[in-house]
Amino acid sequence: MFGLMLSGGTVAALVIAGLVLRNRQIENGKKIYSAALAVSSILVLSGALIALFSGTSVAAEEAVAVAKEISVGAGLGFIGAAAATAIACVGAGIAVANVGSAAMGLVGEKPEMLGTTLIYLGLAEGIAIYGVIVSLLIIQKL
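The chain above was modelled as a monomer; its predicted structure follows.
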């Protein structure tokens, strides 16, 4: 629990520091940015390691009871569900990148076309939703 609090606190501190320093002119900004990035990386990594290795004995006892219910087929089903979501989200990201850049250019020239471009962006994002639906159907069959 301490590891998760350390990682979450580090992220929250960076967000607050970013909001405070957002519009200020700071000397040696690159050095401050590099130092903050290094310190936050070390804190988040150490928090993740503490969270990962702190409660293994409790989790091991529960895993033995659950392991009897899981088969190889179920494991492959979960991998398939994850792959369906991952590939659909990557495809949606590529589609949104292409459609979004074209939409920005079009709205810059013709502001009245904003609604039409939002429809195309919604269609591109729909690919990810279809991937999630397929993965839910796979998990439902397990």
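The chain has a mean pLDDT of 80.
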